[in-house]
Design goal:
The structure holds two protein chains of two kinds. Chain A is an all-alpha fold. Chain A has two domains: 1-65 and 183-315, no CATH class; 70-167. Chain A is built from ten helices and no strands. Chain A has helices spanning 7-33, 37-65, 68-89, 97-116, 120-141, 148-167, 185-209, 224-240, 249-277, 292-314. Chain A is globular and about 60 Å long. Chain B has a single domain (3-207), classed as 3-Layer(aba) Sandwich (Glycerol-3-phosphate (1)-acyltransferase). Helix content of chain B is 40%, strand content 16%. Chain B is globular, with a radius of gyration of 16 Å. Chain B has a seven-stranded mixed β-sheet, with helices on both faces. In chain B, helix 1 crosses helix 2 (48-55). Chain B has helices at residues 3-19, 48-55, 58-61, 70-73, 78-86, 101-112, 137-144, 158-161, 190-207, and strands at residues 22-25, 37-41, 64-69, 90-92, 116-119, 149-156, 175-178. Chain B is built from nine helices and seven strands; from the N terminus they run αββααβααβαβαβαβα. The model of chain B has no long low-confidence stretch (mean pLDDT 88). The chains are: A mainly alpha, B alpha/beta. The A-B interface holds A 80, 84-85, 87-88, 92, 94, 97-98, 100-101, 104-105, 283 and B 20, 127-128, 157, 159-160, 163, 166, 168, 170-173.
Chain lengths: 315, 208
């Protein structure tokens, strides 16, 4: 797996840095002008988020700069931390200990080794088949049968969401697209930029014009106005970035729309889990955002779909 | 920097990495000043001592001595070096419990020397579900040195990270909740005090 840098990547990165600079500027102006206490809290959170975006961007770009290895390691660590956040909040029993050890220290590294090795055949089935079957067996051997189905299902679910789904993002680097060899880093960048931008724009539209809630019992922040505005505008940006991908402008629009819808679905499902567990955030690692899983919830759903659309239609 | 200081820094770093632990202080200012304290905590994992110790600010760490069972820690080799030289632990004989005269004598001597202590008054590791009855050592310390603040520390998830009987840890996120300090009331007897101390721990566990 090798990744080359070209002028297009530099243009994309310049765009991201410019966007963040504008966000920081707006945040600074807002912080000076807003007077009410509620408004102040919102702006403080907004600025904390922007600051974290700078850090996340720096980490992501540094990983991309090292080529394939760095990206695989970065996403492996994200998976590890996301799984950690999810399992910490999920009640487990003493008998799950060894199964969990396998999940963290065998399945996570092996899945990402398969990504690095570009062994698609095993990458695609390792967790859905082998880990899926191993988890209940290992737990059964521990002998505690209370809540057996629920306990094994939670570990399987954690592995699927936090490890399997997320690993499809760096797996984009293994795709051999005719006429686009060695350029897949831009696909990874496209996926991350479009999906995360969609999150940001849904937040911005929601805060400014959001009125009608989609699922009031689940998330007070997800409104029709915010969601449609965010997804539509982020998809438009995706279309405008077509030149950095193997897609035509129309296809880029359509694909961006699909991954943004998937991302919305991801945010919705992860919110449902948080509601069920009685927590607001999965963690505290990223200031203003919550945990890693709070930040990548939409990516979890979007990455495998983006990977397979690209693989099916373009390789 | 001495070998011990490097090992101490490393140990605190590795502990925080594995357990993701952060100290949560109910009274945030209490984590900052250098007041002498006895931290007493629920016990369910071999990591407990390390977790409390490494979630203390570095300046407090150097002056805080974990009270450790001599039969386990005071054995030749790495274990003794880590316990006695790196953690500066205070080994006590477990047979008679902390209430035994000799052990108590050591604890008081350490307090008089100006050190803080980490105590596990249950005496042994539990299953992480319920907090056991507290042994009387804590009461005797409170009676002998009533001016020392007794800080309850509730350790969350440590029994899931490294339960009793396991060698390999699962890297979940642990927490050390430092509660408000308690003191022995003038007319309080042993039983009432220990019940109150235990309640302080369970209450921390419930409010997290």
């Amino acid at each position: 797996m090798s990744v080359t840098w070209d002028s297009q990547i530099l243009m994309l990165l310049t765009g991201i840095v410019g966007l963040l600079a504008v966000a920081s500027l707006i945040g600074t102006i807002l912080a000076r002008r807003i007077g009410s206490d509620d408004g102040r809290a919102v702006v403080a959170n907004l600025n904390a988020r922007t600051k974290s975006w700078w850090v996340m961007t720096a980490v992501f770009v540094a990983a991309l700069a090292t080529g394939g290895v760095g990206s695989v390691v970065l996403f492996a660590l994200l998976s590890f931390v996301a799984l950690r956040e999810l399992i910490t909040l999920t009640p487990t029993r003493r008998a799950d200990h060894r199964t969990l050890f396998w999940a963290f220290f065998v399945f996570v590294p092996v899945q990402y080794l398969l990504v690095y090795d570009a062994w698609y055949g095993l990458f695609a089935i390792f967790i859905p088949v082998y880990a899926f079957l191993f988890v209940p067996v290992r737990t059964a051997l521990a002998g505690d049968t209370s809540d057996f189905l629920a306990r094994t299902a939670k570990i399987q679910w954690g592995l699927m969401i936090a490890v399997y789904c997320v690993s499809h993002a760096p797996a984009l680097l293994m795709l051999q697209i005719p006429g686009y060899e060695g350029q897949s880093a831009k696909l990874l960048l496209f996926l991350v930029v479009v999906v995360q931008l969609s999150d940001v724009l849904q937040y911005v539209f929601g805060k400014t014009v959001g009125r009608r809630r989609i699922v009031p019992a689940l998330s007070p922040n997800k409104t029709w106005e915010g969601t449609i505005g965010g997804i539509a505008s982020a998809s438009l940006v995706g279309a405008l970035l077509w030149w950095s991908t193997p897609f035509s402008p129309g296809a880029a629009l359509l694909i961006a729309l699909v991954i943004n819808l998937a991302g919305f679905a991801g945010g919705l499902c992860m919110s449902a889990i948080k509601r069920d567990l009685g927590v607001k955030d999965f963690g505290t690692l990223i200031e203003g955002h919550g945990g890693v899983l709070d930040r990548i919830d939409s990516l979890c759903f979007a990455a495998p779909i983006f990977f397979h659309i690209t693989r099916y239609f373009y390789t | 920097m001495s070998k011990e200081a490097i090992a101490a820094g490393l140990l605190a770093g590795v502990t925080r990495l594995i357990t993701g632990v952060r100290g949560h202080w109910q009274d945030p200012s209490a984590g900052q000043d250098g007041a002498q304290r006895v931290y007493f905590a629920n016990h369910s994992s071999h990591l407990d001592t390390l977790v409390i110790w490494s979630s203390l600010p570095k300046a407090l760490r150097a002056r805080t001595r974990p009270v450790a069972a001599a039969d386990y820690w005071d054995r030749p080799g790495l274990r003794r070096w880590l316990a006695l030289r790196v953690l500066n632990a205070l080994p006590v004989e477990r047979a008679g419990g902390c209430g035994s005269r000799d052990a108590l004598h050591h604890l008081i001597a350490a307090l008089d020397a100006g050190d803080s202590l980490i105590l596990f008054p249950e005496g042994t590791r539990g299953d992480g579900q319920a907090i056991g009855e507290l042994r009387s050592g804590l009461y005797h310390v409170a009676r002998e040195r009533p001016q020392v603040e007794l800080v309850p520390v509730f350790l969350e998830n440590l029994s899931r990270i490294l339960p009793k009987g396991e060698v390999l840890p699962v890297p979940l996120i642990g927490r050390a909740h430092f509660g408000l300090s308690i003191r022995l009331a003038p007319d309080e007897d042993r039983k009432a005090f220990l019940t109150r101390a235990r309640l302080a721990l369970t209450a921390l566990g419930d409010r997290k």
